[in-house]
Specification:
Elements: H1 2-29, E1 32-35, H2 40-59, H3 69-94, E2 103-105, H4 122-137, H5 141-170, H6 172-180
């Protein structure tokens, strides 16, 4: 049990290093015109850390444990892979326009291709699925709740800040895009 637990923890850390690397790499390539993050990235990362601490903390105990480890670790791994593919796809679609903070870069344009045809925030959908996968792999229903609730609160705050900024920067063009698309789940939400 502990070996699997530490493997899941290692994957969570590897994913964190990936995000850190991407952030550092992308900072060098973008020409920021205006920023209005309002602390939303710090709030999101803080809630992700709280979710991980709570999820892994309870996941290391027998409280809430579901006995079928093998099934849950496989389902969790598949969710992590799916979320990672969605996240990478969204980053690749935005290319140089992708930033970790809420910013407008030079020659900023509204992207409506790829996953952005159906949803406005596929990168955040990928994040939710990744953290759902990590917590599912722990084979503990309390871990899932303790991970997902803080992550979703942070992401919804981030979306609120980002969409407000995009409306301010792009006006009617972005509000029309909002009418045609959903936030995270195609045709639902």
């Amino acid at each position: 049990m502990y070996t699997r637990f530490f493997i899941i923890l290692a994957f969570a850390y590897l994913y964190g290093f990936f995000e850190f690397y991407m952030n550092m790499r992308l900072k060098k390539k973008s020409s920021i015109v205006k920023s209005s993050d309002k602390g939303s990235i710090r709030f999101l990362f803080t809630l992700i850390q709280i979710g991980c601490l709570l999820s892994f903390g309870i996941g290391a105990t027998k409280t809430g444990k579901i006995d079928d480890w093998n099934t849950f670790i496989i389902v969790g791994a598949l969710l992590i892979l799916l979320g990672f593919l969605i996240r990478i796809s969204s980053i690749m679609t935005l290319k140089r326009q992708y930033t970790y903070t809420v910013t407008r870069i030079e020659n900023h344009a509204l992207i409506e291709s790829g996953l952005y045809k159906a949803i406005r925030h596929p990168g955040y959908l990928g994040l939710v699925i990744i953290f759902l996968g990590i917590s599912t792999a722990l084979s503990n229903w309390l871990s899932i709740i303790l991970m997902i609730v803080p992550v979703i609160i942070g992401i919804m705050n981030r979306i609120r800040v980002e969409e407000s900024f995009l409306i301010e920067q792009m006006g009617q063009k972005y509000t029309d895009y909002q009418k045609r698309t959903k936030r995270l789940i195609p045709k639902i939400f």
